[in-house]
Design a protein that fits this description.
This protein is mainly beta. It is built from no helices and 33 strands. The radius of gyration is 20 Å and the shape is globular.
Length: 315
Amino acid sequence: MFKDSDFIESDAEALKSINLDKEAQYVDYKEKLILYDKNEVKSIDCNGNTVFSLNMKIKNCKIDSNYYIDILDKEKNKVYSIDAKGNFVFKENVPPETIIYKSINEHTFFTVYKKNNKEYIKIQDEQKNVNTELEYKNKITGVYNLDGKILVSDIETRKNISSNLVIYDENGNQKNKLAFDNAIIDICVGKEYLYVVFLDNIVVLDFNLDKKSDIKIKEINKISKTDNDYLYIIDKEKNLSYVEKLSYKKGKNTEKADEIDSINGSYIRYLKNSVYNKNGDKIMEYKQNIKDSIKIDSKTIAIIFNNYLEIVKIC
């Protein structure tokens, strides 16, 4: 049943192993693992059981986890939103150069597309009525659900590099805007704050885009949001640190990581082919290097390899 794992202690239990094609896609959604592989969209629970399975033959797709499970079919120029039970709640034809598709809430669906080298945003309701459709001047880099509103990040490169955050309501009315004189690398939406990541610092904002803190951090490589509203940071030397609300704290010098996941009120970290708990104990080791990980619920993760994944419960 299981591939090539060794359990170092009783801190972890492998529940199920699932073979994957190289092009498989996976996201987490409402404490389920959503997997697109072999022309099927599957929802898999924390025990490895299939909640639903849908036949969807899509050669070129992008799957995302938002208010619903969102799928962009780039070959047939269609989008789909699927609820937790496997029901299609929204289907729509989209322009050929559609870049981003997001369900924002139960009533709001957001599309970004290109036409004649210009980018446009379109907001629709659940009946496919168009709330607004407008040209966007800069290149859109991300779209986020911000308490039911729509947060858009962009980059402008015509002169000096700059970027913006813009908040829209579901009718496309601009509510707030904040400009930066450098490029946004990533964004994490926490329970209280918005963490805007740049190359060497993280700006902490409230949901009105008012600045609360500016934390200087060198050579940020990866970030990971946790259940406790911490933001874990891995630098280019694989050192671990974190932001707790507005405060920055460094990890121990021995805490190296390629990836990190919040789990069971604590965290685990991945380094090459091994998994470690918060105390630094090695709890799992594999013969293959770990490619990725997806957290399913507070105690369960899917560890991804080149040709399979393993669902693991952390005790």
